[in-house]
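Writing this down once: the sequence line spells out the residues, with the fold written below as integer tokens. This is how one looks:
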Amino acid sequence: MGILNITPDSFSDGNLYYNNLEKAVEHAIQMQKDGADIIDIGGESSKPGSIPVSAEEELRRVLPVIKILSKKLEIPISVDTYKPEVADAALRAGAKMINDITGLTNPDMLKVAAKKNTPVIIMHMQGEPKTMQKDPRYKDVIEDIHDFFESRIKDAKKLGLTNLILDPGIGFGKTKEHNLTILKHLNNFKDLGYPILVGPSRKSFLGAITGSTVEQRLEATIAAVTIARLNGANILRVHDVASCRKAIQLADATINA
């Protein structure tokens, strides 16, 4: 899954594609060429400390891109949003998936997805982006996330939603130690019976371990996605598609050896 942020303030690629439709479209097409299977388009930053934007502003950012790319890409588009009205408009514009960082906790988002049994990524986040990294705590990070997934799956099934993907939310209300524990024990979520998505790309825990800046975290990202794949991840959400794709090819060859 290739990341395309149409924002002025995302932690890694903020302002690169914001208010630049041509550049955003070109980047998505390049990620497809580089081997992306999904393009994830977001119009609101969810980095730690970020400030929410209105649904109107989010739609202004993402809809033009989705409308063009839905006609140009051969792979599906995912909309990265927790707002039901944004998800609904994006699906009507050509998006095929919803990536919800609030994990379908909004009943209205459940209804939007249930209309056509749209594939939904249920992500776990402790708190909200503005405050999530202020001393996050868990009794047991794996068990707590597992319980969250069970609850969200139950509510989704009540509305007939079956196309679910589970994302434990690396970096969303987690310490460095929590993130490493999640990567190490991804297989603990396999019993739930749904694909697992992991998004460690360029995140701060990688910098905390390696001492690298955001721009210097490619090697650590490659290591993280490889570990995630070997431990059971089915989808890797990344900025650097070409490099990470090669790493996953090697991981898959090892798994299948």
